[in-house]
Amino acid sequence: MAHPGLPRGRSRALPSGERLRRPLARLAAVPVEAWFRPVLDRPRLVVLLTLLLALATGLGLRHLSFNPDSRLFFGRDDPERQALEAFEATFSRANNVVFVLEPADGRVFTVPTLQAIAWLTERAWRMPYAQRVYSLTSEPHSFARGDELVVEDLVPDPARLDGPAVEAARARAMGRNDLVRRMVSAKADVTAVMVLVNAPGESRAEVPRMAAFARDLAAEFHARHPAIAVHLTGGVIGDDAFALAGRRDLQTLVPVMVVLVAATLAFGLRSFWATVATLAAILISCLLTMGAAGWLGLVLNPATASAPVVILVLSLTTGVHIVASACRELARLGERRAAVEAALAENAWPVLVNSLTTVVGFLALGFSIAPPLQELGTIVSAGSLVALLLCFTFLPALLLLLPIRASAEIGLPALRAALARLCDRVIARRRAVLATGALALLGLGAGMTRLTFDDDFIRYFDESYDFRRATDFYQERLSGLHVLQFALPSGEEGGVARPDYLAKVARFADWYRGQPKVVSVSALSDLMERLNRNMNGDDPAFDRLPESRELAAQYLLLYEMSLPAGHDLGTLLDIARSQSKLTVVLAHVSMDEVRELGLAGRAWLEANAPELAAPPTGLSIMYAYLSERNVRAMLGGTALGLVVISAMLVAALGSLRLGLLSLVPNFFPAFMAFGLWGYLVGEVNLAVSAVAVTTFGVVVDDTVHLMAHYRHARQRLGMGPEDAIRHCYQISGVPCLLMAVALGLGFAVMALSGFAVTHQMGMLSAMTILIAWFGDYLLLPPLLLWMERRI
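Above: the chain's sequence. Below: its structure in token form.
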């Protein structure tokens, strides 16, 4: 049986259409038996070998692991990542765990609370890779004793605290600008114990190990001190949340997707064994792909954890057309092998073209600057090819062995009748339909102007994550996790002690303190002012910078020699004392605001202290530029992907005119979906750069099937244009509608993820796919009728 959508010979119905030489057409001339005879002759062997391969490959699932690094979205050549790594090479790469403590009585400075803080501080030193522990009880406090500089813990002896000692500790802490809004809240009702860690980065088990220790310690602390609530945040907990997001999505989304796929198949096919056959092919596609990824040592992340869901969805669209046709042909022919052959002949080319366009769409993610999106594209492309192979081998073999039920039509009769009425109205009101489509495109597309990029790594996690809730509390009540860091050069060894250098650092710090959303600023100038006061009998009149370089250098040396064990100046100064670190802590900021504050700081330095000019760096800066850079990088990939997919459609349809016309309803759904998102939400993250090209490769499925049946009706059945369109609705309307709904719901399952990139990718893809069905079955028929009148 010849494929209906790719007939041999020249079209009689479209004599003026420009014909292309089609290598695909020569392949289409090969009898279907020659393609699939080995599979159909030995179905039991094919099924057995497939199951054995799936079993062997599936064992690789146990080797899958998750990447807990919050920098996973940045490649090694990312300029912001390189800048941060250079900064860390100078001041050491340090991550942290923050225990945010909230006493029930709203008072940090009480004997029980300070003693509890001291206990937690001592235990926190046992955390793996702990480098330093900061807390109110261990914070270095300097003061003068005669001519001597004394540096001791802010609470020197927690075990012997009394009322006067507590009040003295309160006065010292609340009088320190570098502690308020960093270690203690302005109301003194919340405090933090911060553990600085420096893991070697040799194993992905380091972050989970530190996070587990922190959770156990927090639980032990709360058991000992139930009147003090503990909220865990910090970089280590954030890193662990990235791995947790991947595991959670894999454990929750995949089962939901399997149930949804089974329900969709049962509703559409109305045959238990047909549903079993299709579901088996879908699940084995996913198992083979992810198992192979495990054997190859692939490390999953929150983005690639959604790959099984995407593969399940795409495998559904690949296999269901063949199964539905087999059920229909079985009702017509009455013989199982003939029905399967007819189903393969009818769907081989549409399924092949759709699978290849899907592969091209996801391979275009290779242009992304974000490694997780590159890996997602590779995995899903491989999964699509595996699903295609199984649809031409395992699935037809299984259809021969299982007692599938013959069914002349799929879907409910009421649905078919509704589509027939819709078809008649589209034909009768074609001009109004086109005008309405154009208005919808313009109206929804305008919403794209409302879109703003915001890749806040904190808000990547929704409120279901402990890390997000704890961080929100931390930012609301105490400090923030968004940080800008500057390595301010002095230009010479030991130059940080120069008075002119310190004065400019102080002016820069004061300028940042006056900016909105800035919680605190830590700079070398703050320490030098305090030391100058200490060394002058703690006289407030000397609360200023030292007057000479020699004096400042002596103060630094004396201070460092006096620091308690576990403290040094390595996180503030480089070894040569040629540059110092200035840290700006921000809270409740968008990534646009982070970028703007960073650029404003650099501009201030260039205008007021050009010799100190340095770029801002930090994880927040990296994420602030992520979407913008990724969109620019993806422009080339998207353009190339669209060109290749367009060429494939033109080649498959054998007509430049039809091929280009078929692109119209497929180009606009993404614009309309993004516009609708702009009206409803407004903010988008990294996902937006991936949706356009990947969904374009998916949504051509409806177009390919509709155009194939349209050409078959025009060329083989001799129908007129209007009757050919009615034939398309009758043959492909219900299957394509069910598949659009299944695809939409399948990607919508990703929206259940608490990880923002997966959530937005799922929602935008679902919206695009559902809009695309309306484009194919509402806009494409009037366009075909318009074209017919032009030739």
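The first strand starts at residue 65 and ends at 66.
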